[in-house]
Amino acid sequence: MDHAALLALFDRDLREGARPDGPGDARVERAGAVVRQTAAAPGYSCVLWSDLDEDTADAVIAEQIAHYTRLGLKFEWKLYGHDRPTDLGQRLRAAGFAPGPQETLMIGRISELTLDAGPPRGVRFVPVTDARGVELVAAVHEKAFGEDSSWLRGELLARLAAGPDTVVAVVALAGDEPVSAGRMELVPGTRFAGLWGGGTVEAWRGRGIYRALVAHRARTAAARGHDHLRVDASDRSRPILERLGFTPLTSTTPYVYTPCSGG
């Protein structure tokens, strides 16, 4: 499958045809020229896909701001490098959105990936199935990324409680110390599984744990009937993923809008 066809499949299955990303009250709807998810805080509200041009973009942006502001919700417009119009990012900034770090959308066909990596000596992978495991994942997230992980605790607990069909999480332990973790979101009815949150605490980087976590989750995805993986890759993880056989397709940048207090 060439790049254009693969990108079209990704847009169709995971963006225009998106499903709610977790249990609870999240809903996905087609609203004119966009597909958006709306979820009460701390859930994830986001514009997932759009079909805009120079004449329609500003009005549609204003409509989404009005929709989420009425509900008092912060939301993200997930912009991909091939979205139109070409100056959509500039228009979002002009409307009050704050851009986050740009990453690279990478896709891997599981059957073509190099998946022979295992954890280094002294490290074992443990599936996350309960609150204790979620705490270990959250601890890794906070140490690896320097970010509060309250949202991750709540989201992962809710998804695990709803059943294992849409999420898989794993933590890497050195003895009893959590040193790396990652999760995988499964989208039933599509070819794709998504790798998210892969991170290793600084003292344990450079030992192949991330690479082995990718391989572990890829094998799990294949066993669940998915044949492609997607990753929003940072500059740090992109070279590792390319060596494993992932293909960079386009950029992805989160643009976040926070309603003014009282507005």
From TrEMBL:
Pfam families named among the record's database cross-references: Acetyltransf_1
Superkingdom, taxonomy of origin: Bacteria
Protein name, per record: GNAT family N-acetyltransferase
Transmembrane segments: none
Native species: Streptomyces dubilierae
Domain N-acetyltransferase: from-to ranges: 123-263
UniProt cross-references to InterPro entries, sorted A to Z: Acyl_CoA_acyltransferase, GNAT_dom
